[in-house]
């Protein structure tokens, strides 16, 4: 049999080494050592890691690359970021949103990021951002799986017209029901919004991904309502709570009750390490809370946990570059997950776990899966995180769509090597 692409001598995330991956007709046809068939293109991985593509479980594509418009976030807080976005929204044009989103998708492909769940604000009665991102979704479909969440940024109950706008957005083809209960006027309104939004998802047969308890307030507990509604409406496996930063500040007794409720209901959790540790704790002196939710404890309770990038160069975050290894690197440090198993989990949090939450079909490195993968300049997942490894080749449906050279530095030191490569420093 002739193949379109064969990658020789790969290391896989599960530890297999010396593996060949053969692709044809957009799918992985064989994964085994010593594949000798002809192929349109052959890549020698040289013992490096081949991974399924990176997946961003939580992002805001409508606001990305808008840093400085209309001005910078001086306080660095979530609320000032929301206010800035509110000032920017009336001046948005469809063309500008599309252009920025497409530029970001170019960057994502270069980083091996081939699936993104993006929240899109539905509180503008024009639904301009919704129209723009629906256009972007179609444009990038050949190389990125883009999933859109109807997100009532200004509050489902609080913002005039938000409820009707959200339904309109779903009618237009937005994929997932979103919410922001902690931004409603009262805790009671927040709980009511969770119930209403979950009912919409149940009626339409859709998934739910709710910004939940993105606060330092330990009494912000909408994730409890989300778990209860998930169980009541039979939505297990279709619901994620994003951020959950209030859990960072909750007392341990309450958390010991909450985590089993989430696991029992089948609610997933999405932490956003880069953003959670910069927006949270802004009102603290010292000690200063870092805000990221309790990732190790959620995992121990049996909850599926993924990481998201959340923001890149927008009103909430002035940095970022579509690099999910950067996200995993920060999550590892903040969550103190420095065991070998913990570090490998952080790689899963931006690949397989995130894909599971998004419900991506035929994702992975087994025969029959889509031939989507990334060749990394690293020996294994831990080394990939340590190095934020170069993406030597990014493959979509069996075709290489992006390439980067290895990172080597030439030295001019008497008696020392002529060059160094960080990937060469892997521990034995």
From TrEMBL:
<dbReference type="InterPro" id="IPR013108">
    <property type="entry name" value="Amidohydro_3"/>
</dbReference>
<keyword id="KW-0479">Metal-binding</keyword>
<dbReference type="GO" id="GO:0004131">
    <property type="term" value="F:cytosine deaminase activity"/>
</dbReference>
<feature type="domain" description="Amidohydrolase 3">
    <location>
        <begin position="41"/>
        <end position="400"/>
    </location>
</feature>
<dbReference type="GO" id="GO:0035888">
    <property type="term" value="F:isoguanine deaminase activity"/>
</dbReference>
<dbReference type="InterPro" id="IPR011059">
    <property type="entry name" value="Metal-dep_hydrolase_composite"/>
</dbReference>
<dbReference type="GO" id="GO:0006209">
    <property type="term" value="P:cytosine catabolic process"/>
</dbReference>
<keyword id="KW-0378">Hydrolase</keyword>
<dbReference type="InterPro" id="IPR052349">
    <property type="entry name" value="Metallo-hydrolase_Enzymes"/>
</dbReference>
<dbReference type="InterPro" id="IPR032466">
    <property type="entry name" value="Metal_Hydrolase"/>
</dbReference>
<dbReference type="Pfam" id="PF07969">
    <property type="entry name" value="Amidohydro_3"/>
</dbReference>
<protein>
    <submittedName>
        <fullName>Amidohydrolase family protein</fullName>
    </submittedName>
</protein>
<dbReference type="GO" id="GO:0046872">
    <property type="term" value="F:metal ion binding"/>
</dbReference>
């Amino acid at each position: 049999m002739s193949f379109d692409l064969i990658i020789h001598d790969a290391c896989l995330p599960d530890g297999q080494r010396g593996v060949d991956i053969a692709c044809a007709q957009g799918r992985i046809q064989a994964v085994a050592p010593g594949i000798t068939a002809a192929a349109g293109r052959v890549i020698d991985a040289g013992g490096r890691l081949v991974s399924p593509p990176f997946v961003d479980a939580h992002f805001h594509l409508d606001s990305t690359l808008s840093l400085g418009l209309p001005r910078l976030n001086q306080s660095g807080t979530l609320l000032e970021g929301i206010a800035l976005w509110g000032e920017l929204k009336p001046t948005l044009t469809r063309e500008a949103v599309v252009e920025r989103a497409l530029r970001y998708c170019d960057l994502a492909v270069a980083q091996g990021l081939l699936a993104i769940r993006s929240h899109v604000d539905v509180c503008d009665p024009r639904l301009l951002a919704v129209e723009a991102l629906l256009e972007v979704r179609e444009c990038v479909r050949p190389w990125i799986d883009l999933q859109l969440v109807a997100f009532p940024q200004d509050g489902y109950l609080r913002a005039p017209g938000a409820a009707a706008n959200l339904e309109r957005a779903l009618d237009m083809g937005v994929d997932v029901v979103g919410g922001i209960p902690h931004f409603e006027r009262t805790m009671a309104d927040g709980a009511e919004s969770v119930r209403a939004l979950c009912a919409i998802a149940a009626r339409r047969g859709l998934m739910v991904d709710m910004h939940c308890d993105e606060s330092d307030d330990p009494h912000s507990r909408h994730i409890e309502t989300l778990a209860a509604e998930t169980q009541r409406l039979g939505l297990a496996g279709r619901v994620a709570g994003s951020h959950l930063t209030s859990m960072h500040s909750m007392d341990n007794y309450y958390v010991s009750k909450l985590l089993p409720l989430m696991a029992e209901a089948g609610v997933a959790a999405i932490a956003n390490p880069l953003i959670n540790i910069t927006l949270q704790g802004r009102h603290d002196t010292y000690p200063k809370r870092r805000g990221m939710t309790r990732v190790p404890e959620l995992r121990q309770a049996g909850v599926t946990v993924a990481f998201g990038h959340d923001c890149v160069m927008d009103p909430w975050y002035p940095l970022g570059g579509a690099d999910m290894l950067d996200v995993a690197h920060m999550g590892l440090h903040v969550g103190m997950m420095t065991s070998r198993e913990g570090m490998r989990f952080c790689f899963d949090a931006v690949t397989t776990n995130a894909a599971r939450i998004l419900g991506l079909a035929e994702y992975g490195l087994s025969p029959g899966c889509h031939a989507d993968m990334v060749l990394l300049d690293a020996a294994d997942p831990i080394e990939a995180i340590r190095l934020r490894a170069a993406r030597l080749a990014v493959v979509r449906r069996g075709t290489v769509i992006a390439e980067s050279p290895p990172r080597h530095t030439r030295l001019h030191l008497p008696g020392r090597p002529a060059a160094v490569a960080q990937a060469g420093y892997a521990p034995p």
